[in-house]
Amino acid sequence: METNSKKYNKWIVILSIAIPVVVAILFGVKVDVELPVFLPPIYATINAITAIVLVAAVVVVKKGNIQLHEKLMKTAIILSVLFLVLYVAYHMTSTSTKFRGEGVIIYFYYSILISHIILSIAVIPFVLITFVRGITNQVELHKKIAKITFPLWLYVAVSGVVVYLMISPYY
C-alpha cells in the first residue's frame, strides 16, 4: 500500500504550497462586487460545524465505525474547502474589519489570530497526509499522524470561531 500512497505525495506537496500562496495572492485582489449575503457568520458557522464533525469522527472511529469515520472526515474536508472559498470571496469583495478591543484583550485576540493563521497553513499537509494514509489503508501510519492532525485541525476550526466572535462587534 505504501507505493500506492507515493503517487499522492507530489499532490500533497503541490497543494500544501499552492493553497497558501493562492490565498495570499487572492487577498491582494479586490473585486468590485457586492455579495448577496453577509459571509463572516456563515463561514464561522462552517468552522464550528467542522469542529463538531472532527470530534464526531474521532468518537465513531474509537467505536470501530470506520465507514462513518471516513464519511465524516470527507465531510470535514469539504467543509474546510467551502470555508476557504467563502473566506477568500469575502476578503476579495470587502475591506478587512479591524479589531478595536483595548487592553489585555488585544493581546489575547492577536495571539489567537496569529496562531490560527500559522496553524491553518501548517495543518494542510497534515490533513492531506492523514487522509491519504486513511484511504490507502495504512492504518497504523494513519493513526500515528492523526494524533497530530486532529488537535491541530480542531484548534484551527475552533480558533476561527473565537476570532470571529471577538471581531464580530466591529463589523
Automatic annotation (TrEMBL):
Q: What keywords sit in the KW lines?
A: Membrane, Transmembrane, Transmembrane helix
Spans through the membrane: 12-29, 41-60, 72-92, 104-131, 152-170
Signal peptide position in this chain? none
Q: Which InterPro entries match?
A: DUF420
The name this protein carries in UniProt is Putative membrane protein
Q: Which organism is it from?
A: Lutibacter agarilyticus
